[in-house]
Amino acid sequence: MNNDLNISKTSQRTYSFPSDKEKHSLLGLILLIILNMFIGLLLYKIRILATLHALLLPLLAILALSFKKPFISISFLSYIVTSHVLWRMTKAHVFWEYSKYVSILLAILIILRYVRHIKNFILPGLFILLLSISIPLTINYYGSWEDIRRELAFNLSGPFLLSFSLMLFYNIKISKTQMRWVLLSTSMPTISIGAISLYSLLTNPIIYTATSNFTASGGFGPNQVSATMSLGALFFLILAINYYKTPSEKVLVYTLSLWLFIQSLLTFSRGGFFNFSLAVLSLLWFTIKDKKTRARVLGSVFVISIFILLLLPKLQYLTQGQFKERFTNLNPTGRDKIALAELKLFEKHPIFGVGPGVGIAERSEILGYYTNPHTEYTRLLAEHGIFGLIALIILFTMMYIPIKNVHSIDKKGENAAFVLWSIVEMAHSATRIAITGYLPGIAYLNMHREE
Q1: 15 found inside a domain
Q2: For residue range 55-69, what is the model confidence (pLDDT) as tens digits?
Q3: Is 17 inside any structural domain?
Q4: Number of domains present in the structure of the chain
């Protein structure tokens, strides 16, 4: 009799049903996913709603400053940063770099609201200063205020957002639960973007070639759409590994990660693939060193890899046999020529460079055609000269700090993934999308996360 009772108690301890709290958490997550898919499709169909969405979110973020907890304002800020591509896809009637401007302003307001004594602002401040030295060259070259504003905004708003993000997040501490909400807030627009891309794919005739595909990207730039969805895939992978505990939640979040990764691949833009793959490798590099996380992480990667391997033949069939050709082709599509042209400009103008935004005109004389910068590192050299070189050294130093200065394996792995995603994105798309400059800031926020 006693033995039966002991077995019963053991069974109760081992096999427990989800609690009401866990059920509510799962239901809330499902509703959040459905809501953001619906928002994406609604904004895509009704342009005026996309504009209202873009105008309303910053106002809500400002109102959130009234709360005592900074993570609420930071969650709004994170959502706005990732919405940069969403608003472009849905043709919101706001200016091109709107998300970056608003994000910089909100970062400053959050600093003023929650940070009493700013620490470690020297490197980000020096980074901004070094990139400002060559601005007079831009003013002298273009003359027209509109041209000056456009070029400075396009080339400097991303690096400036990076600096203000680091200033903010180095001085803010949040809990692990709050960090989960920040990651979710950053990821939600990627679900909207994924829903739009999927809808476009299902409702339009599509012919795949060995080039990027606009139809699979919701009619917008495949490079930017692919990169943003790959970021969502990375964030949901990290959320599944380190932030969700129940099997049902993990399965759901892993599924989201896999869906966004596949959706990113279907754009046929290789940038998202490289961003995600190298970021995940950096995550694995650190997490497999810890016995506590090794089995969990390797098991997760193994399951996802099996799914991907099973899906590859389907993707090859769906893309009329072009998938393999596209992703085994390492042709840099002219990015190498652009980078070499920028190095030549650095040789000709080694002190001050040609000025931010002037490179597009100066490169055209070398290349014979106009094209925007794609590699942030060579752009810094060409347009800022020796000051750009110093800024580049500071940039990599700032990137290294949140990896070096944490002892927790899971945080070190997360930060390495955040930073490497940004580094790879800068290598092939400069700081074109807002999240590129913002992501290293999230690594700093994670560095000060309280367990």
Answers
A1: no
A2: 999 999 999 999 988
A3: no
A4: 1
